[in-house]
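FAQ: What does a multi-protein file look like?

Like this. Sequence, then tokens, then the next protein.
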Amino acid sequence: MPRVLQILNRFNLGGPTHNAAYLTRYMAPEFETLLIGGSQEATEAGSQYITKSMGVEPMILPELQREVAPWRDRAAYRRIKQVIKDFKPDIVHTHAAKAGAVGRMAAADLGVKGIVHTFHGHVFHSYFGALRTAMYKNIERYLARRTSRIIAISERQREELVDEHPICDGSKVDAIRLGFDLMPFQLEQEQARVVPQSVRRGGR
């Protein structure tokens, strides 16, 4: 049975958690999937209720955190390498910048054949000065060379990665929109249209 390791930055409230959880829960039955990631920061809302509602139990790595910290990032790298050695995935799929950097390096260093990365956003403009932005671009270009496929979440993002900033060749990038379960919103709208019987009687 092929194995897929999903690596998420952290389990804070946001789109990446939904995306990684859906990919874990609804992967085709012939795949075995494991989801790992860092915990949310103290100032953030957690999102583990999302994974719990889908019956997914992720592995939390306290070493994997948002801020750049060489000593902690090195610990996260070692921890992820150990998970890869234990789980033996055929595919490692990373989500967002920190997990993408540490996870892809660990997977490539251990010879994982399939390495996939999803850009849920980027910091290639409007975040940092020119020098720091150039550094991040060069890091992503290096990581892209060690990646089998890159996923952009929109056609516009694909254009940014391929043409505007060029991070990698377009032949390596697929644009795949994030999928979300919209049924709860539809049910709420349908319930809002239903006028309670007591209200109808009161209006007579």
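And here is the next protein:
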Amino acid sequence: MAQSLPVIQPDSHPLLGRKPAWLKVRAPGGPNYMRLKGRLREWNLHTVCEEAHCPNIGECWEEATATFMILGDVCTRNCGYCAVAHGKPIWEDREEPERIGRAAGDLGLEYVVITSVNRDDLADGGAAHWAATIRAVRRHAPRCRVEVLIPDFQGSPASLETVIAAGPDILNHNTETVPRLYKVARHGGRYERALGLFRHARAVAPALVRKSGIILGLGETRDELVATMRDLREVDVAILTLGQYLRPSTHHLPVEKYYHPDEFAELGAVGRELGFKHVESGPLVRSSYHAKRQADSA
């Protein structure tokens, strides 16, 4: 396979200077963006686009595409790379699934991505709420495809099966990083648990398309990245996303490296050689970026 390109580090470690030019995006504010933002506020709905400070929010919302975040906006875990607030959730909203279903129908959405915070405080990790949300979208927008970006449910097969039984079109769980960095980056997460989730999904729903994502720049090596990609192919993950880690604040893990777009292209080619049906690889790529196109391609 091709050799990796030279490391590009515009500033001394940690990388606290200006970001490379290829990471610049236009500030959001177009008419569709403002319309969608207003409707989401009206319906009291959360999106990971906002909570995780996604750089693509302007582009995606202009296309009337959003990733709904259910089960509140406070996560029970404190991952070193994530901008979502953490703490002890006190939020419960049994009407949320119905509001999301109505929103998908009213907006005429053809593709919906649903994700959530980790809710380790709940016995089922929120799986029943997940299933109710999927079914609500099916009722109100029967032609809309549903991708679910799920937490690991602390490895509970029953919770995973509850979500699968509701009939999503794509099952996504982000691996996020390489095994060596899990203790630093994914507090409460387990690499083998992530792979086990995909194994169990394959066993109970072999036709369900599986997807995962990795963020780059936390200190992983190229060999570790490729090994992780191989692990994901071994559990029949079909769609892979690769994107640049961007530090949300000085309280989060530093960026160890900014990958050049050419490096992302090369890693994308490696992924396709490994057998992924679709690889979305680029500095600004996030798990839900161009999700509908990814599903179409796969």
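Q: Is there any per-entry metadata?
A: Some entries carry free-text notes. For the entry above: The chain has one domain: 23-297.
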